[in-house]
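Is fe (ii) ion placement plausible here? Inputs below.
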Amino acid sequence: MLKERIAGLLGQRQPGHSLPRDFYVDDDIFRADMQAVFETDWIFACSTVEIPRPGDYLTLKVGDNPIVVLRNRDGEIAAFHNSCRHRGSMICQKERGRANRLVCPYHQWVYELDGSLINARQMPDDFDKTAHSLAPVHVEVICGMVYICLADEPPSLARFRAGVTPYIAPHMPDRTKLAFTSTIVEEANWKLVIENNRECYHCAGNHPELLVTLVEFALPDDPLVKAQFQGLMERSATRWDGLGLPHKPAEGGNEFRCIRLPFNENCLSFTLDGQPACNKLLADFTEPDLGSVRMFRVPNNWNHFLSDHILQFRVLPLSANRTEVRTTWLVHEDAVEGVDYDLQRLTEVWLATNDEDRVLAENNHRGILSRAYRPGPYAPSEFMLSNFSEWYAGKMAYFTGGPQARLAAE
Ligand code: FES
Ligand SMILES: [Fe+2]
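Reply from A.M.:
I modeled the complex. Tokens:
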């Protein structure tokens, strides 16, 4: 029944328009989103440098699924369903922590960092511990970014890996450390959070801090690109070509975007004066004017890689009208707080921007609840919303198994 209803709503969808209301507000469709998207696709979880030592772990929830991502004794990143094989209790409770072994707090079953059950007290002698390992979750690490997939057979990340690595690897994310993390909850559907991120039509009216440094219509394929920006882009491109840093848009289709773009004239970083937030530049950079590599990947991740720090954003839906947005700031591993960087200066632009975006997404959600809501047309500068809604519609069509399913799967 639900699949038929979704197929009907997909049939009503007008390309180039926002989605029919139920896709944003309906609880059943939210559950379908979790199955069709979040339990089948690769989900950005964290950065490897957030769990630098064996035994370090980080937890998150993908829909109803609690997951633990950890670094095992071999130094590799692994992920497991955070659900005990005895009677299902969540094992790791904290958002981040460190454990020599994973011990379930309920009856103290003990798991190795590779997920194997090594102690189950009071169980009979013939109890087969080997049949009760933690359920593994697929993991791929790309330039320090940890992606997890709950599907039995995950889709390929090969194109994404090959596409983004040349842009990101020079920033050496493995040689960074976590400077700060912020988690906020937005009272809005996850798709509104993503849509809000995919356009800067709203920037001029809402983001005074961000627009100190961000070029508003900076995308080369944006119809409103300005001659002034073209000059800036050409000068930057010549410099980046000389440094061997790629900048032209990667071929990511609707799956991902990756591009290096300049900041406003004389601006080098996301700060209120445009000067670097961290004096110790990433990698072995000596040139601070590297603009930013902006990378987005459906369904839940966008990042900025600058000369002096890295920003990573993770979106996790909580319910039809609640979405968690977690932001992490990474700086050079040798940078010292209070000496090389000031935390307020490093974080203030995006803390403010995130909060402004939260208000926009929440207002958007509330307005869509109106009985007068009708899907409205995207502006030309909102072309990335078209990409996103086409991708989403494809996922949902595949989920419903309808006539568009085969096409969407190709
Ligand atoms: S539920 Fe984990 S030990 Fe019982
Ligand atoms: Fe915004």
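Short version: Confidence is low (pLDDT under 50) at residues 406-410.
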